[in-house]
Amino acid sequence: AIGELAQVAGIGMRPWIDDLCPILMDMLQDSSSLAKREVALWTFGQLVENTGFVIEPYYQYPNLLDILFNFLKSEQTPGIRREVIRVLGLLGALDPHKHKVRK
């Protein structure tokens, strides 16, 4: 529902990103439920795409890149892998040196 709301509200969702992202990050790391992780991934992608919340998530959540790469390593389902690549593309490129220094 949050992802669909982001599609409709767009940038109007920005005030709630700081509240939603920690919840989505926890859901992305929940290894007990693939369905929960898949929904969190799609929702995160919708928030990023529709609010313009790019690059910043890498800095606010330093383990985000590792979480997304672990999805690619562990998931064999083509749909989930495609969604991870889409989210990585939506988040945008980041300077690898700066990312390494901040970690």
What can you tell me about this protein's structure?
- There is one protein chain.
- The protein is mainly alpha-helical and 103 residues long.
- The chain is built from 7 helices and no strands.
- The protein has helices spanning 2-9, 17-28, 34-51, 56-60, 64-74, 78-91, 96-102.
- Helix 3 (34-51) runs parallel beside helix 6.
- The longest helix has 18 residues, at 34-51.
Summarize the structure.
This protein is 73% helix and 0% strand. The chain contains seven helices and no strands. The protein has helices at 2-9, 17-28, 34-51, 56-60, 64-74, 78-91, 96-102.
In round numbers, the mean pLDDT is 88
Largest sheet, in brief, is: none
Task: Compute the number of strand runs.
Answer: 0
Uncertain regions spanning at least 5 consecutive residues:
none
Order of helices and strands: HHHHHHH
Radius of gyration: 13 Å
Which structural class matches the secondary elements?
mainly alpha
